Amino acid sequence: MNFHDEMKKVFLKVIAGEVEPAEWKNWWDSHSRKLEEVLDRGDFGRIMPDEWSVSYHWMVKTQSAAAYHFYRQGRPMKTSDYYEKKAQEEEERMRQAAMDSFYEQTASARQQWERYLEGHPTQPVNFDWQKLLGTPPGQKPAQIFSYKKARDAEQWKQCIEELHLRLKENVQAKIAPLAKAYGMKKSGPKTFVREKNGLVALVNFVGYFRGGGYESMDYYLCPIYAIPTGILGLPGHICRGENFRKMIENWREIEYGGEAVDADRVQAVNQKFDDILTFLAEDIFPEWQKIDSMETYFAKERQAYLKATETGPKEPWMPWRCMWDLSTGDKKDPWRADAYLSGVWYLLSGKEEEGYERLEECVAHNAKYIKSCYAADEYVKAYNDRRDSFAVMCRNAELFAMTKQITDAEERQKAIQDTYEEVCQFMRYFHGLAKRVERV
Q1: How much is the mean pLDDT over the chain?
Q2: Which end is more exposed in the chain, N or C (fewer Cβ atoms within 10 Å of the end residue's Cβ)?
Q3: What is the model's pTM?
Q4: Which residues pair with 138 in a beta bridge?
């Protein structure tokens, strides 16, 4: 057998998934000079890149390149999925090892936070959410469509209406019972909200816009006077962990309505809501349940824990990329929403110097916007519109900052408390807890 035939035989075995990574590396190294002579530069580099290492991850790329080598010769080949499956297992092991290292590195901050929680216990929620998984009870049978993709306005309308029905079925059967178990109430067909001890928790499905379905899901826990912007509210490994990754994968199943919502699509929608339910029930709601007061929300132990977990470990095979990164580096929040958030808390806690300093930072940073709005006589409309979070925050910050002008300490404290009550009254409307409120 000449070398040409031997090379083809080995390549075919690779395409069939019959060569282990170490075996392949040994064969390639033993014949590298001949391979360089026989293969053109493109095939040589694709089959064995410079960064290649002994792993199933790289065998997937080698297999694909070997198949392409035959394809160029007019001999298309079907590749085995052996390397791909092994590469997935390999990646999961690496991810788990990276996460184990991450937990070890953040153990000190987590332990301090857990010790704080031991001294501030909350009532756990015992709810069998797993019984909600699967097909919603009473779900209507899937329709049979004569087409796969909508071709005209009538078909598009049919697809959208059917998708909306399946979304509604799943929200009512899966998300609503879980939200109710955690004390949340419906603030709309796809919004759930709760106010407790000065904190507001919200889950909202965003849509229907470009795709026709739900484009995303908002979820946050924050003081009722705050806006959900510029606030680091959850540890990175919880809000960007494995359940989150699984949830956002194939989100398009509940986003786009241009395809027939047949039996397969209905099943896909049900499965995606299972992923959403799991993310909320295992990660988000239990973490929120630990925080039942603003004192706990602003506790230095919690802030330190959030800071320690905001950047995740490196992605397997992509050392230049973190699994998640919630940090802003040296960049400040462009709205200074964090300055507003902490500034009000300082005032409520009696730390007026720090509070006014932070609030004045927020107001000064946004002074140009505020001035332009006043000049256009649009500011009142803007800060009374809960869709304009920026204007709402700016107005709130102004109201609190103005109390500094009161010289008498006792009167100033009363003004701060009155302003807090006034702001909270409007913010209940902002967060969907109350009906529309107008202010001047």
Answers
A1: 93
A2: C
A3: 0.90
A4: none
Exposure string over 99-123, b if 16+ CB within 10 A, otherwise e: beebeeebeebbebbeebbeeeeee
DSSP 331: P
Do the Cβ atoms of 159 and 259 come closer than 8 Å?
A: yes
CA 193 to chain centre: 19
Q: What is the CA radius of gyration of the chain?
A: 28
Q: Examine the pLDDT at 230 and tell me if it is beyond 80.
A: no
Is pLDDT of 246 > 80? yes
If residue 395 lies in a helix (H) or strand (E), which one and from where to where? helix 389-402
Burial classification of residue 233, based on how many CB atoms lie within 10 Å of its CB (0-12 exposed, 13-18 middle, 19 or more buried): buried
* Distance between CA atoms of residues 385 and 382, nearest Å: 5
CA distances from 270 to 45, 123, 124, 376, 431 (A): 44, 31, 28, 48, 28
Looking at per-residue pLDDT, the higher value among 228 and 247 belongs to: 247
User: Taking the alpha carbons of 385, 387, 391, 393 in that order, is the dihedral positive or negative?
Assistant: positive
Alpha helix ranges (H) inside 310-388: 337-348, 352-365, 367-375, 379-383
194 CB-contact burial (10 Å; exposed 0-12 / middle 13-18 / buried 19+) = buried
Calpha distance 105→417 (Å, rounded): 41
Single-letter code of the amino acid located at 344: V
Residue count (the chain): 440
Short-list 195, 289, 185, CA closest to 234: 289
- Average pLDDT estimate for 57-68: 96
The rounded distance, in Å, linking the Cα atoms of 372 and 394 is: 13
Whole-angstrom distance, CA of residue 24 vs CA of residue 40: 19
Span 69-86, average pLDDT: 94
Sequence-separated (6 or more) residues with CB below 8 Å from residue 234: 221, 284, 287, 306
What pLDDT, on a 0 to 100 scale, did the predictor assign at position 197?
Answer: 96
252 half-sphere exposure, CB direction, 13 A CA radius: 3
Report which DSSP code applies to 164.
H
The token pair that represents 88 in the structure block: 């997935």
Alpha helices per DSSP H over 48-183: 56-72, 82-105, 107-119, 153-170, 176-181
Alpha-carbon dihedral sign for residues 109, 115, 117, 119: negative
Q: 17, 10 in Cβ contact below 8 A?
A: no
